[in-house]
Amino acid sequence: MSRRTLIAGNWKMNMRCESAVALAKGVVAAVGSQPSAEVVLCPPSVYLSKVGEAVAGTPVELGAQNVYAADDGAFTGEVNPSMLTDVGCQFVILGHSERRTLMGETDADVSKKLHAALAGRLVPIVCVGESLEQREGDETEQVIERQINGSLAGLDDVRAAGIVIAYEPIWAIGTGKVASPEQAEEVHAFIRQELSKMFGKEVADQIRIQYGGSVKPGNAKELLGQPNIDGALVGGASLTVEDFSGIIAAV
Ligand SMILES: O=C(CO)COP(=O)(O)O
């Protein structure tokens, strides 16, 4: 089963209009017309339109960092799937640990967003991952199992094949402490086993599982070389053309 490597840049709450467009153009130029991987940029929502214009007609794709699960209406401050596709998004990150911890997003919220995203023809990137305390308490598999089951509740096999999972151990996010390739692969294999239980092996084998947490040009090759690591969700190192294209070049 060959799964195309997916490298996504999660810019989080960084950049301004001019620097966002410059970064997007720089990535477009660096990856060229036949990138070694599928490449997605996820800028803050206010810059989606501008970055979308910068990548239009190129192999670089656009993703959002969050979405609200409702049709148009009285939801002050929110953005729905139809608005995201309207500005050119193909992907949306869901349930990032920063949203789970800082904004109190639950697995049930993520599941609602997942169904709304799929109905709106967006590819969801569903984030899961344990805290340091949970890892040290030997609860990693339990936590991941709960997040996978809760976040993907009600998903059918056909739609499941098209989603993306991102394994992001919280202790490795923005800390410079990357999971070793073996540590990451162990959890990725466990996630695929869980997906297999839910959707069958054939579907589970099609689902891409990205790793996220201090991915840099220097550690990307080893991580991406693991059998169940199908890409990277990159934070800090996606903010410069040099680092981000260095990670893509490692594919
Ligand atoms: O949270 C992340 C991507 O979503 C990872 O962030 P860093 O690459 O900065 O550790």
Automatic annotation (TrEMBL):
Q: In what pathway does it function?
A: Carbohydrate degradation; glycolysis; D-glyceraldehyde 3-phosphate from glycerone phosphate: step 1/1; Carbohydrate biosynthesis; gluconeogenesis
> Where is it mostly found?
cytoplasm
Give one Pfam family, short name only: TIM
Give the keywords, sorted.
Cytoplasm, Gluconeogenesis, Glycolysis, Isomerase
Q: Which domain of life is it from?
A: Bacteria
Class in the EC hierarchy, top level: isomerase
GO MF entry, a single one: triose-phosphate isomerase activity
**CDD domains found in the cross-reference section:** TIM
Keyword Cytoplasm listed? The answer is yes
Specify the protein name. Triosephosphate isomerase
Provenance organism: Novipirellula aureliae
Which taxonomic lineage is given here?
A: Bacteria, Pseudomonadati, Planctomycetota, Planctomycetia, Pirellulales
